[in-house]
User: Fold this.
Amino acid sequence: MDTVGNIVISLLVFILILGLIVFIHELGHFLAAKKVGIMVLEFAFGFGPKLFSKKYKGTIYKINLLPLGGYVKMLGDQDASSFLRYNLKENSKEDKKFSLELIKKNNIDLATNDFTIIEDFLKKQAQELKEEDYKKLQNFIFYDFIPKHKGNVDNKRKKEKLLVVSAGVIMNFILAIVLFYIFFLGNGFSTDLKKLGNPLIIGAKISSPVILTDVYSSDNSYLSPSNIISINSLPIKTKSDLIKILHDNYNKKVSIQYQKVIKDASIKTAEVVLNGDGVKSNLDEDLMDAIIIGEVQDGSLAQQIGIVQGDYLIELAGQKITDNTRISDILLQNAGQKTRISVVVASGTIKNTDFIVPQPIDGKVVFGISYGYNSPIYEDIIHLDYSEQKGLSAIYHTVNMTMYNFTGLSELIKQSIKEKNLNPVSQGLSSPVGISGIVYSLVKVEDYSNIINLAALISLSLGVMNILPIPLFDGGHILFIVLEKIRGKKISDKIQEKISMIAFYTIVALSILIIFKDIIQFDFINKIINLITSIFK
Assistant:
């Protein structure tokens, strides 16, 4: 698929993911509000201009143009953000009397009429009354009638408020569970995580991925490439675990649980010799930490002596080559001398080649290769295997990822405090810009399974972030409710507003920092320039 096609699909997938997650969050607030008798004025899917609306049982249901989430407007909210609320203020007796007489005269029943009728009445009076009289009516409705209304969330019991505030987070967790289960169905009920701190893991076998890239046996060549989950039923957590079990089973077949790296994600079992006489696999002790040849430069010394990409360089001039050895230093020490190089070729055989090391030029003997190292175990990755707990896998994983989020965030905050800057926190978080970049990368390789996993992780992360005791977040509202319960009285509106404004500007500043980081990290400016250039070529 071309670049434009990938961008269009990525944009649609991104909108679907973000829209679904935020909508489900708001649906939780909506359902809980209805359950406890809060008057919900609007429940909208999307933002921007209205495409469709219908009033049903006092609530206006709307579909808006931009499908990026939604909102719930409850009685007492000044707008859909719930940031500003109508709080009780004193009205003079004369103004209140004027307002009640006007309401009665227009056959408005404050006790039984839908609030939408009262809103329409207020709008009509704005056109008919003098400005001074309209202000009297408006102040009564906004700062007397609404704050005292039984359908106002502020007038509900604390446990009902807690239900409404936490319902969005609960729905995000439920969505994450559903999406994780779909992901696991197509991914062998296992997944990998970057190791960050020491999170509590339940319900899963834990190991570090061991990558089997080469098996030098025609009977077992189908195993390459695979991710080994366990050897002889033992999960491999560290490099020393791997070395020990391979050493203990020298020239012996071992039973491995493996998962193919591509196509088939199911977990299977096989018996194979991984370490023994000669070279059995890339896990053989002779190849552990050996250099793997990458690109071989044309006309180079390496090409002249028959080195090709994919060879394992195990010995040079009688010295074992490991990741601590510099090839150029050994060549320089043996300049002008006959030297032997030993490599393991694609067939698994050891090939010895004698050659004369040329004289150095400018103090260097250039071999002419790029290379990496055969480090088959990734100790900075956690492999989670839920195959023995399939029915509860998604629930366990949601719990594990919740703990992982808290542990990871804690580690990032500690690092930021230690370094006295916000970079570690901002580097560990992603904005919608960063998420769109990840979606684009997955769409390019048609990895729709991991797009589902990404959606689940975002839903879970949104739930975790919202439950944090930060003003403006659901967790901040929960904190205020709990403090009110402890103090026995409500925190003043002015104090709440000041705290919320500080939190608002802090969040905006952090968001700008994260967005800027994502623009640089995903090279969006160059991508946009290249796209525009390609369109107009």
